[in-house]
Amino acid sequence: MRITFLLPHAGLAGGIRVAAIYAQWLKRRGHDVVVMSTPRRELPLKTKVLSAMRGKGWPKPKKLGSHFDGLDIDHRIIDRYRPMTDADVPDADVVIATWWETAEWMMNLSPSKGRRVHFIQHDETHQNQPIPRVEATWKFATTKIVVAQWLAELAEHRFGVKDVKVVANGVDTAHFNAPPRGKQRTPVVGMMYSHTPWKGCDIAIEAFKIAARNVPGLKMIAFGQHDTFDVLPLPSGAKYMCRPPQDQIPGIYASCDMWLFASRYEGFGLPILEAMACRTPVIGTPAGAAPELIAQGGGVLVKPQDPMDRAVAIERVSRMHDDEWKQLSEAARRTAELNTWDHAAQLFEQALLDAASGA
Length: 359
Hints:
By secondary structure, this protein is of the alpha/beta class. It contains twelve helices and 13 strands.
């Protein structure tokens, strides 16, 4: 097949990484894959002027990289952030929108650009977007692929869309891997750090502080894409890594005795499977795919927005006997092995083949 992905700015977001993984896999399968993306949005002129007036100079965009950097993929970046048109997009068998704006652009393309597929990784009405326009994309005449069961339920219950294919994300169990191990004498809690409110770091940090009162020496390790913020400080003594290289991330997961998945709201939650693949049990809120994944083994599901319930789970895992913790650790690895990218990509490919054939 000839396959085109339509992306907004192809940065380091988790959804971009998922698209990059599928693009690579499909190319290895012999498909002709093109990825179209935009540059980053320009800062508003008012923001630039205010920066200059405050003596901070004319702001320049930071170079943060992309999940497509270094990949052998035909990645074409258009001249500026704007709607993509027929003149930008090659003819194909299937064209895949990956964000609500790209879905709007896709609907204005001619039929020669391919059968229309909308790949939905989140309820995008939550990100300060124009809600009526975002909601309208759910009703477009497209093949819809979603990454978690809750999104399929959202499609049916809010928009009356029943024909939705669920293709859960996966994990690279060769990259995210660690040898069997025992629980450390001094327990270590890991988490992703983000100032985005719906990521729930504030509740995770509060839970850690509560648990640390009862678990002597409890430690925290965190990593994220941005520097820490004064309004959301990590606990005293926490170790933080900003934008660690991809080859170091499995070691971060493996250095922990438990991983906090703290989101209030999430599309899927890739760190759940990544931590599990590294034999690190997950303490997770019922967001994204956490309910399905933790039900398969290797973690503890806690109440949303309840730091005390999360603290109790931290204490419980911290006090496990070594044999009990090893059983939980191995269950986490087994769950990851049931949810590989190879399995996910086969389902994704079949959904595209069905779309191309009009099935």
